[in-house]
């Protein structure tokens, strides 16, 4: 099947210019995968306050639940035929699976080459942010890897809260929604400063240590399979994109320098090869 130029990727609109400030990790996983496969598409930007309505309008249920049991509507969504909304795919991992199955030899090749992805988390690590769960068994090792990577970054997401830039039209509503999700009343409570911030950064550095080892195992880099990129790199790369846009420049520079610079090299390589926002 040849790539179809009518594909539409629905992504979260942060502050204008949207393409420059786009930083949600899961839409970036989908964008990297589309660019990896060389599939023509265009981006439809959706304000945070409109996500639930857009997703429902495309006939997609919420793919996660909050701790209180309410639905969590989020993006990305990929519509492969705008004339048929039943073609909508509402999960970044499902989008990658679809692209690999539909365009197996396109672009940079196989998104899911065989490799060991035995990254594990410290015992007891738990996120307040709901993460997607999978039961279909497709590319199961990659799915488990994504679950662990998402958890590793999510539990340190407080580092990014005050660095998120929203469209002024909806900024107050978005902040109120974030506070509701975590059960807080004041925006300042979501920030983290001083010694507490340094401790959380150190926790992130330690948590990412095994990932750094995976990026170093080939000895060549910048990807886990050396010069060959895969969806495992994209999973990590989506989060690095978020950090690059929401952390102070100096702090992101620190992360890029950890473990002989493996995260900086990975981020730069993914942005150079697959980072176009279309």
TrEMBL record:
<dbReference type="InterPro" id="IPR036249">
    <property type="entry name" value="Thioredoxin-like_sf"/>
</dbReference>
<dbReference type="InterPro" id="IPR054416">
    <property type="entry name" value="GST_UstS-like_C"/>
</dbReference>
<feature type="domain" description="GST N-terminal">
    <location>
        <begin position="14"/>
        <end position="107"/>
    </location>
</feature>
<protein>
    <recommendedName>
        <fullName>GST N-terminal domain-containing protein</fullName>
    </recommendedName>
</protein>
<dbReference type="InterPro" id="IPR036282">
    <property type="entry name" value="Glutathione-S-Trfase_C_sf"/>
</dbReference>
<dbReference type="Pfam" id="PF22041">
    <property type="entry name" value="GST_C_7"/>
</dbReference>
<dbReference type="Pfam" id="PF13409">
    <property type="entry name" value="GST_N_2"/>
</dbReference>
<dbReference type="InterPro" id="IPR004045">
    <property type="entry name" value="Glutathione_S-Trfase_N"/>
</dbReference>
């Amino acid at each position: 099947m040849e790539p179809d130029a009518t594909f539409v990727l629905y992504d979260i609109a942060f502050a204008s210019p949207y393409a420059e400030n786009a930083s949600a990790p899961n839409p970036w996983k989908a964008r990297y995968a589309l660019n990896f496969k060389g599939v023509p598409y265009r981006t439809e930007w959706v304000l945070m306050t409109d996500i639930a309505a857009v997703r429902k309008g495309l006939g997609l249920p919420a793919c996660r639940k909050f701790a209180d049991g309410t639905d969590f509507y989020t993006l990305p969504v990929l519509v492969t035929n705008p004339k048929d909304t039943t073609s909508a795919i509402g999960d970044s991992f499902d989008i990658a699976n679809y692209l690999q199955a539909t365009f197996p030899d396109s672009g940079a090749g196989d998104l899911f080459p065989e490799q060991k992805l035995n990254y594990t988390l410290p015992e007891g690590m738990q996120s307040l942010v709901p993460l997607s769960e999978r039961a279909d068994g497709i590319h199961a090792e990659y799915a488990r890897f994504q679950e662990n990577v998402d958890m590793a970054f999510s539990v340190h997401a407080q580092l990014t809260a005050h660095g998120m830039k929203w469209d002024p039209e909806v900024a107050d509503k978005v902040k109120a929604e974030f506070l509701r999700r975590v059960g807080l009343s004041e925006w300042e409570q979501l920030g983290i400063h001083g010694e507490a911030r340094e401790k959380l950064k150190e926790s992130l550095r330690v948590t990412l240590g095994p990932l750094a080892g995976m990026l170093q195992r080939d000895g060549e880099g910048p990807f886990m399979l050396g010069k060959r990129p895969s969806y495992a790199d994209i999973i990590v790369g989506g989060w690095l994109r978020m950090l690059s846009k929401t952390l102070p420049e100096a702090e992101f520079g620190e992360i890029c320098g950890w473990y002989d610079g493996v995260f900086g090299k990975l981020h730069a390589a993914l942005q150079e090869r697959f980072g176009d926002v279309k």
